[in-house]
Amino acid sequence: MFNKFLRENKISAAILTVIRLYLGYSWFTAGFHKLTGGFDASGFLKGAIANPVKGPDGNMVYSWYANFLESFALPNIDVFNFIVPWGETLIGLGLLLGCLTTAAMFFGLVMNFSFFLAGTVSHNPTDIFLGFIILAAGFNAGKYGLDRWVVPFIRKTTKTYTEKNKAAA
After folding, report:
1. Which residues of 101-121 are buried (b: 16+ CB within 10 A; e: fewer)?
2. For residue 14, with 0-12 CB atoms within 10 Å meaning exposed, 13-18 middle and 19 or more buried, which class applies?
3. Closest C-alpha among 153, 143, 142 to residue 24
4. Which of 17, 76, 87, 105 is the most exposed place for a label (fewest CB within 10 A)?
5. Which residues fall within 8 angstroms of residue 119, CB to CB, at 6 or more apart?
6. Which of 26-42 are b and which e, b meaning 16 or more Cβ less than 10 Å from the residue's Cβ?
7. Do 17 and 148 form a contact (C-beta atoms < 8 A)?
8. 3 state SS for 36-93
9. What's the mean pLDDT when you consider all of the chain?
10. Is 9 in contact with 143 (CB distance < 8 Å)?
11. Judging by beta carbons within 10 Å of its beta carbon (0-12, 13-18, 19+), is residue 57 exposed, middle or buried?
12. Of all residues in the chain, what percent carry a pLDDT higher than 90?
């Protein structure tokens, strides 16, 4: 019942728009400041590796993630210095404009969980909670945005493309 309200109701679409704009602004400003102010993730990654998330027993909880950061992310820091600020900016832009909202929110959640696994709590729990609401709402979250036109266009285009391929086969 709640899912139907979330996915189909116009009042829900308006509430989702407010949540989407809040998250979009947060993501956009975070990414934009990194793009314009210079950004280097190496300090953050070294800190996450040196001080990983530990359980009550003092052992690492996400040792696999610390290994990922140490063996993949840190050696490829130039890639991460590019994708983090641009990813945050584009996620924010997608949410602010309501364009490809579910895709933007999916990648936002991936980044939120990445920060969370690295030990940064900050506002990530709130962003994750609100992000899952946006993701669960699907198309309705971007109804008062560009998704109103973009999603039907994509569906129509891919349907036409699929039908042409089936006819040619």
Report:
1. bbebbebbbebbebbbbbbee
2. exposed
3. 142
4. 76
5. 48, 51, 52, 53
6. bbbebbeebeeeebebe
7. no
8. HHCCCCHHHHHHHHHCCCECCCCCECCHHHHHHHHHHHCCCHHHHHHHHHHHHHHHHH
9. 93
10. no
11. exposed
12. 84
Structure tokens at 53: 């998330």
**Residues 67, 46: Cα–Cα separation, whole Å:** 12
79-84: list long-range contacts, CB under 8 Å, 24+ apart.
Answer: 80/41, 80/45, 81/39, 81/40, 81/41, 81/42, 84/31, 84/34, 84/39, 84/41, 84/111
* Length, in residues, of the chain: 169
Ramachandran category for residue 58: left, alpha or beta (phi over 0 → left; psi -120 to 50 → alpha): left
User: Using alpha carbons only, how large is the chain's radius of gyration in Å?
Assistant: 19
How many CB atoms are closer than 10 A to CB 17?
Answer: 19
Of 68-72, 114-118, 155-159, minimum mean pLDDT range: 155-159
Chain segment 53-68, per-residue pLDDT in tens: 999 999 999 999 999 9
Q: Which residues are 54's β-sheet partners? A: 60
Residue 126: what pLDDT?
95
What gap in Å lies between CA 42 and CA 63, rounded to an integer?
A: 19
